[in-house]
Amino acid sequence: MQTTTTQKTTIAWYDIFKPSWYVEQMQGWTPSSYRLLLLGLGIILGMTIAGKITAMSILTMLAGMIGFTCTLSITNAKPLNGVLRIVSAAIYIVVAINAHNYNDVLLQSIYIILLDLPVLLMPSWAKDVDKKVRFLTEEGRGLRNWLLTALFFAVVLAFTYYSDTHWFISPRPWVDSIAATIGITGAMLTTLRFYDTYFFWFAQAIFSITLWAITAAQGDANWVLLVTYILYLANDLITIFDTRVAWFHHAKRQTA
Length: 256
Hints:
The chain has ten helices and no strands. The chain has helices at residues 19-25, 31-50, 55-75, 82-99, 102-121, 142-167, 173-191, 197-217, 223-241, 250-255. Helix 2 runs antiparallel to helix 3, helix 2 (31-50) runs antiparallel to helix 9 and helix 3 (55-75) crosses helix 4.
């Protein structure tokens, strides 16, 4: 079906601050994404209300709701990053510092640089993402691209582990640094619009669930954040199994 000529093909930087831009970003998702969004927001809200209401619990709820919504929008090739994701990342940073998961602080900071600032500084990056998704193996460059990705991963892992054991002294250095490294690599691939990013997002969700489960077992429990990462994992499963999602079914969408 041909797109109507009235649809905007470019956006200006100030559109990011308009409510109408965020409404547009929420349109055109797959039905499974909308269902997961309603379920996830309900779970996060319900857990917050059922627990002890504190300033930290309210911050965690807001971070979870905003971050989860933005993650689902990226899955639907509508990066709802911009201002909202920066707010969510800032709250995550506060929560992670409180729990001494310092590489999670680094991870959220990298998300701002790789996933949020491109939308704010280059708004056109957020337009027609589904038409620009590509493979690491495209044009016969698979070996080179995967080697570069592996090198990037190794360098970031060395840095995050060193920072956790020499600068911040995290009580969970290995799982914290691995989770952060996977997330940073996934963010880099998302920014470059590689569909392979979802292999990393899936693994990152697993490690983040492990990280916050260990954190809870060691006395710094934040169950809402733990459940939020489980919801992130559910989003990754939608990406893998829902053929209407362009990121993971790029080839099918191109040949359809």
